[in-house]
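Extended Data, panel c. Modelled sequence:
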Amino acid sequence: MLVLILGLIVILLDQLTKLWVRTSFVYGGEPQAVIPGFFNLVYVRNTGAAWGMLGGQQVLLVLLSIAVLVMLALYHRRLLNPTLDHRIALGLMTGGILGNLIDRVRLGWVTDFLDFHVGAWHWPSFNVADSAICIAVGIYLLSSLWHTRHPLKSDEA
């Protein structure tokens, strides 16, 4: 139940923030400083995956997203421990993938808007779904390392 609720929260936040950006900002317009010299909001259309990789390959990216979702549905019990941290990671991952998949199918691109930079270093723009996916991977990796060193007892699972 936690996985479903968390996934739905991510999808809702992702879609609402993207809608807000599409209706409030000019596509390709000037970034709006939130924290000058560090964080801007900007309306970007990403036709690729992370960092624009596979740009314009919407069919491939849609199929890849569906394949990962099917794999998570079929194999999550083999890939994840039945622990709270892994259930949180699964909810974030699922919600993030579905949030971007909705954009790809509906619009043909993913709406990105979070824009961070420090001096000359500039991170590619991203969104709530991207953030959820990255956080999920981080939680999964760190907790997997923890669980490797501190195995669950059968009564803890």
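DSSP finds four helices and four strands in the chain. This feature is highlighted in the accompanying rendering.
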